Structures are given as C-alpha cells and as structure tokens.
Amino acid sequence: MSFLSRRELLAGLAACSASAIPLDKVRLGITTDEIDDDVDTALKFHREFGLSWCEMRHLWGTYNTSLTLDRIREARALMDKHQIRLSILGTGFFKIPLPPDTPEGRGVLDNQWSLLDAAMERASILGTDKIRVFAFTYKDGETPNPAHYSRIWELVSEAARRARARKFRLAVENVGQSYVWTGAEAARLLANVKDSNLGLTWDPNNAGSAGEKSYPEGFSKLDKSRILHVHLRDFRQNAQGKWEWCAVGEGVMDNLGQIRSLLKAGYKENFTLETHYKSPKGKAHASRTSIEALLKVFREA
C-alpha cells in the first residue's frame, strides 16, 4: 500500500470544493499512544499530517495520571515544540465496578477522587480543560443492575461538581461493559446528570459494538450541545460474528454521515482518531492507514 505524503494530503485538500472543510479548521488529532509510546515520535507524526491537536492517555508507556509532574511538564514542552495542543486528557476515572456503600467501598472511592485530582493537575499543565472519564463498569457476561443507576448519577454529578470548582469539564465516554455503552444509555446519563460542565465523549464505534445502530439512531437520542469530544475509527464483524476494530473505511461505520451530522448540529469541539485496530505492521502503520482514510472523509464532509 502506498502512503500519501503530507504535501500530497495538503494539495488534495486545497483542490477540494469550496464546501470542503480546510484542515486548519478541523480540530482533529490522534491518541498519541495509538502511534507510539514515545511522545516526541507521536507528535512528529501529527505534524506530518498537518494536525495541531492530540489526545493523550499513556505517555512513554505509562498512564499519565501515574507519571510525575516533571514528566508531564516534559510532555508539555514537547507539545509546545511541535505546536500541538491537547484536546482532552484520557483518564481511567470511574472505569471500575461501582463500589459498594461500605467502608471498603468508600475507600475505593477515595482513591478515585485522588485520581480525579491528579488528572486535573496534569490537565492544567498540559493545557486542556477537558478530561475523559467513565460511569462505572460491570463484568463481561453480566448485565447492568438497575438498582445502581441512581447512585451512579449521584457520583458522576459529584465528580462534575468537584471539576467545576477547578474550572474543568468532564466528558463521560460510552464504552463497552459500562453503564454508559450505547447512545441510548448516554442520553439517559445526560438526562439525569444536569451539571453544565458534564458532557459526553461520543464513541459511535463503542455503541455499535453493543449492537446499537449508533449512527444515526443512537446519535439521534443525544443532546448534541453536550457532546464535548468525539472518537472516530471503524469496526466490522469477523467470520465468527464478533465485532472487531478495523482501519477506517474497511468497516461498517458511516464516518462521513456522522461527521456531517455533527457539523450540521454546530459541533465545534474536537475529533480524535482512536485507532484501536491492530496492524501486523505495528501501531504507527495502523494509525497512518486510518488517518489517511479519515482525512479523505473530512474532505468529503
């Protein structure tokens, strides 16, 4: 497979119709550890494609909330060097089973509140007010416990309150084996947690893997004004009938329709390619294949 150079990509964008979206107007980036564990290498990759935003999760192979502040400042210096801005900080906050309301469970929650504090401290250094969080998980093979919802809403609202006091926004991602997996479940969260600084990291691929027709049906249920971040990639069913991630353009996700609908709704926040699929040629190859295809989608949008 031949790859487009940055010059060819930019030339292609310039040749598009006037209705196409110029790349410098699109807040598009890639999750850095989906390219390389080394931060400098991942940021250079962004500049190759003219991208000026990124999402960060693992840095140098370690989750950002486990790194020292000096190491976080090193990452910020590299971002400044390459003129890359951080769209959202990925964290594992509340990506755990709902702790019981017991002394032991409250100890687990105390650790989660400390994790949120660490995330806000790091997000501040890295220059973003958005933090990706979750809304509790359950084990594979189990189903959501309806009795847990009211407590989940209460805890997510408390997290939003703590973040608001420090001027941060929380974007709950809909993710597999979570109480917020589909568009319908994300809409239910937003209806029950009204905090103005609490929104959604909308991942239509995750929702689709649950069996929902995430676009347009799941998307139609969402309050578009509360979508704070969007993850893009692609997925398909394998020969065994199981859902798997794949390169953009090789699956069933209607990325073009999803992007067009978001833009029509006035969406002005960030898009992140969260590559996920495994290429035998490695992470960078997988992300290169998908970002090239995704840039073509944006040219059509």
Mind sketching the topology for me?
Elements: H1 6-14, E1 28-31, H2 39-48, E2 53-56, E3 58-59, E4 62-63, H3 69-82, E5 85-90, H4 103-126, E6 130-133, H5 149-165, E7 169-173, H6 183-192, E8 198-202, H7 204-209, H8 214-220, E9 227-232, E10 234-237, E11 243-246, H9 255-264, E12 270-273, H10 283-300
Parallel strand pairs: 1-2, 1-12, 2-5, 5-6, 6-7, 7-8, 8-9, 9-12
Antiparallel strand pairs: 3-4, 10-11
Helix pairs in contact: 2-3, 3-4
Please name the CATH topology: TIM Barrel
Side by side, the strands of the main sheet go 1-2-5-6-7-8-9-12
Shape: globular
Give the C-alpha Rg.
19 Å
Seen as an oligomer or otherwise, the chain set is single chain
Low-confidence stretches are: 1-7, 9-19
Number of domains: 1
The helix fraction, in percent, is 40-55%
CATH architectural type = Alpha-Beta Barrel
Alpha-beta content class: alpha/beta
For the biggest sheet, the summary is: 8 strands, parallel, barrel
By DSSP (H or I, 4+ residues per run), the number of helices equals: 10
What does this structure look like?
The protein has 301 residues and is of the alpha/beta class. It has a single domain (24-300), classed as TIM Barrel, CATH 3.20.20.150. Helix content is 42%, strand content 17%. It is built from ten helices and twelve strands. The chain has helices at residues 6-14, 39-48, 69-82, 103-126, 149-165, 183-192, 204-209, 214-220, 255-264, 283-300; strands spanning 28-31, 53-56, 58-59, 62-63, 85-90, 130-133, 169-173, 198-202, 227-232, 234-237, 243-246, 270-273. The protein has an eight-stranded parallel beta barrel, surrounded by four helices. Strand 6, helix 5 and strand 7 (169-173) form a beta-alpha-beta unit. Helix 3 (69-82) packs parallel to helix 4. The longest helix is centred in the middle third of the chain and has 24 residues, at 103-126.
